[in-house]
Amino acid sequence: MKGLLDGFPDDENRSSFLAGVRDSIPVATGIAPFSVLVGITAVEFGFTTAEITIMSAITYAGASQLAAIFLMADDGHLLLVVLTAVLINVRFSMYSAYLAPKFQSLSRMRKAAYSFLIVDTIYALSIPYFRSRDGPSSHWYYFGGGIVIWVFWTLGTLAGAGLGVGVPDVFPVELVLPLVFIALLFPVLEDRPSVATAVVAGGVAVAAAPLDYNLGLLLGVCCGLVVGVFFNR
Question: Which residue did the predictor score with more confidence, 6 or 59?
């Protein structure tokens, strides 16, 4: 932990860290209902509160975590569970490709911690900040926001598992996460390549949604990448 906090007392680093904390709280609050749903679902499928809380804290990936819960509850083969989680999370490798130059000068311990914190929300939240205030202290913004989102996610899962009750049908909890992502998407749409990428990736993902194993999401990401590279050239 000491290695992660080196340089934190510096005013500029502390300011970036606190900005990340402040900006991430609304986002973290928005995903809290989804994490509560994960906890409730896991308990309903036979997981203990301790098991699902530890799983959330270590796995830290909502969509793949839910898929793994359903597969394990259905006695799915371990290889199928792992493969499904990898397919759903393959997008994080693309996030890493963008963030790697920002963190290139950091220590291995800090890089490892930052890689663990990569999720859709902190990635989308950090892009506008890095574009406008990219500098030696900008990574503290990512760290502050990432910690808050991780804490909210883990505590939300714990709360859901502790409740042990179902979510009322009138509450559209399945819409919470997509709405959060839509809110994060619009600040990033600054030029033609970004708009074209978003439209193509979203359209293909929706059209291919019926495909098994969440392959529609992967197909949408790949098509969006091709379009984005084409327009950038």
Answer: 59
Any residues with CB less than 8 A from the CB of 13 and at least 6 apart, and which? 7, 137, 140
**Between residues 213 and 90, the one the model is more confident about:** 90
Characterize 176-205 residue by residue with b for buried, 16 or more Cβ atoms within 10 angstroms of its Cβ, and e for exposed. Answer: bbeebbeebeeebeeeebbebbbebbbebb
Instruction: Check if the beta carbon of residue 177 is closer than 8 Å to that of residue 35.
Output: no
Q: Which of 122, 118, 58 is nearest to 90 (CA)?
A: 118
CB 166 within 8 A of CB 44: yes
What's the chain's average pLDDT? Answer: 81
Q: Can you spell out the DSSP letters for 29-60? A: HHHHHHHHHHHHHHHHTT--HHHHHHHHHHH-
Q: What percent of the chain has pLDDT over 90?
A: 16
Check the CA dihedral 85-91-97-100 and report its sign.
Answer: negative
Domain ranges (residues) in the chain: 11-174, 189-233
